[in-house]
């Protein structure tokens, strides 16, 4: 397919998914702030349009459609907790703004040069950037919808029931896999969709290590709770224990005890029995770090995570996805808000990495031990505020994507980051240890 036609189709598909996600939500719920951690949904909706206005209309030489809105939808000028007090576009106004911008975008796309003379537009980079931005905001909207009070959010498309059944082999699969020591290429220099913080590709030499074959499950986490993990400072860093006490953490976000040993979990305002063999989600970095210590393990570094996910040792080649170059499918990864929750751990063996790690893309973002630091040779592009202003020890890196992540917005080099206290995101973990 012609590149312009492909980009147009992907832009329209992303917009259709965004509008469909919010269609069941009332105007009142779209304009309300459901948590000080999150923006009103109507802000996110118009922000998606303003970002497209900036990068696909104005940056391509078109006239500004909504320059008068820039101060309202600048994420760096207005904190999330302040946005509800701004004179924002209402839901109808936001949708109208989206449609107007999109018309200009498609018109500009017909004529803009997509060659190497303009790095921003080379091979459609800026269009892929804007696409990923909308996909990422849809995941952010899902995190907001998860925080809504009852009766909560009911998607118009009913997700498949439960998780897929785990595959049962002739003999039990190992709980850990060994990743051999030696050099590998971390990051990328060639992926046309990669953000600046994924670049450039560079060689990292690691000692051998063990890493869990599967992400940590609710079953494992319930054992941590039963063993008093939330009440024993031995397993927590000093900062983590102080936060646990201050925040009153006793279990992952959304869990509610049902009797002595059973739990339910809140899924978009609807309580359901906790599925023990699903990956745990809504845990912060401090919790993940404490759990790993309790297990006698640790969180993997992001270099270890990326090598386990992407590197094929025998051929010394890097994979865009754990299983290879083929695009994600439902048999390979649980992505794209199809199930509205994690799938059963062990149910997607076809998506294994070369080392045998499963479900490294999709289901839950996985905390690593690493601070969000630049790769050697990092250069901000196309603007500092995407990555550079966040670089440092204040943020921890997450890898792998969640069930809510769109397949176009994830790969083995993709880096996410957040504060170590954050748990509204769809985040879990897998553990590692030295070999």
What's a concise summary of this model?
This protein has helices spanning 3-22, 27-31, 41-58, 91-109, 125-146, 218-226, 238-247, 285-294, 302-310; strands spanning 176-179, 182-186, 202-206, 209-212, 255-258, 262-267, 270-273, 311-312, 317-318, 365-372, 392-399, 416-418, 427-428, 432-434. It has 435 residues and is of the alpha+beta class.
Largest sheet: 4 strands, mixed
Residue fraction in strands: 5-15%
- SS summary, helix count: 9
Number of domains: 2
Kindly report the name of the CATH homologous superfamily of the largest domain: paralog of FGE (formylglycine-generating enzyme)
Radius of gyration: 22 Å
Helix-strand category: alpha+beta
Could you estimate the helical fraction of the residues in percent? Answer: 25-40%
Placed side by side, the strands forming the largest sheet appear as 12-11-10-13
Distance between the termini: 47 Å
Query: What name does CATH use for the topology of the largest domain?
Result: paralog of FGE (formylglycine-generating enzyme)
Query: What is the name of the CATH class of the largest domain?
Result: Alpha Beta
Mean pLDDT equals 95
Instruction: Note the run of SSEs as H and E.
Output: HHHHHEEEEHHEEEHHEEEEEEE
Find the count of extended strands (DSSP E, 2+ residues).
14
Which residues form runs of ≥5 with pLDDT under 50? Answer: none
Shape: globular
- Going by CATH, the architecture of the largest domain would be Alpha-Beta Complex
């Amino acid at each position: 397919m012609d590149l312009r036609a492909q980009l147009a189709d992907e832009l329209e598909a992303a917009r259709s998914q965004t509008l469909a996600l919010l269609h069941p939500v009332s105007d009142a719920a779209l304009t309300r702030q459901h948590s000080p951690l999150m923006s009103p949904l109507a802000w996110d909706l118009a922000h998606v349009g303003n970002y497209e206005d900036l990068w696909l209309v104005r940056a391509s030489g078109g006239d500004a459609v909504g320059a008068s809105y820039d101060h309202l939808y600048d994420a760096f000028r207005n904190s999330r907790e302040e946005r509800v007090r701004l004179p924002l576009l209402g839901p109808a106004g936001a949708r109208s703004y989206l449609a107007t911008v999109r018309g200009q975008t498609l018109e500009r796309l017909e004529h803009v040069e997509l060659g190497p003379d303009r790095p921003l537009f080379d091979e459609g980079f800026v269009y892929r950037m804007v696409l990923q931005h909308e996909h990422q905001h849809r995941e952010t909207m899902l995190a907001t919808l998860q925080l809504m009070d009852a009766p909560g959010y009911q998607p118009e498309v009913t997700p498949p029931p439960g998780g897929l059944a785990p595959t049962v082999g002739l003999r039990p699969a190992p709980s850990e896999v060994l990743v051999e020591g030696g050099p590998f290429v971390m990051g990328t220099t060639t992926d046309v969709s990669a953000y600046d913080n994924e670049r450039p590709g560079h060689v990292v030499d690691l000692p051998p290590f063990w890493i869990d074959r599967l992400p940590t499950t609710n079953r494992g986490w319930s054992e941590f709770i039963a063993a008093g993990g939330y009440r024993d400072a031995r397993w927590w860093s000093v900062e983590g224990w102080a936060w646990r006490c201050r925040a009153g953490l006793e279990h992952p976000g959304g869990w509610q005890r049902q009797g002595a040993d059973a739990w339910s979990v809140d899924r978009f305002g609807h309580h359901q029995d906790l599925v023990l063999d699903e990956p745990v989600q809504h845990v912060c970095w401090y919790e993940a770090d404490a759990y790993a210590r309790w297990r006698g393990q640790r969180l993997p570094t992001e270099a270890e995570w990326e090598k386990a996910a992407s590197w094929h040792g025998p051929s010394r080649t890097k994979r865009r996805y754990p299983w290879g170059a083929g695009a994600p499918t439902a048999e390979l990864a649980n992505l794209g808000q199809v199930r509205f929750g994690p799938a059963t751990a062990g149910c997607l063996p076809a998506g294994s990495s070369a080392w045998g790690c499963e479900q490294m893309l999709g289901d839950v973002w996985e905390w690593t031990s690493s601070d969000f630091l630049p790769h050697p040779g990092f250069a901000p592009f196309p603007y500092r505020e995407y990555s550079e202003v966040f670089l440092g020890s204040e943020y921890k890196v997450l890898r792998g994507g969640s069930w809510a992540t769109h397949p176009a917005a994830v790969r083995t080099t993709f880096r996410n980051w957040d504060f170590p206290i954050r748990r509204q995101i769809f985040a879990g973990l897998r553990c590692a240890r030295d070999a």
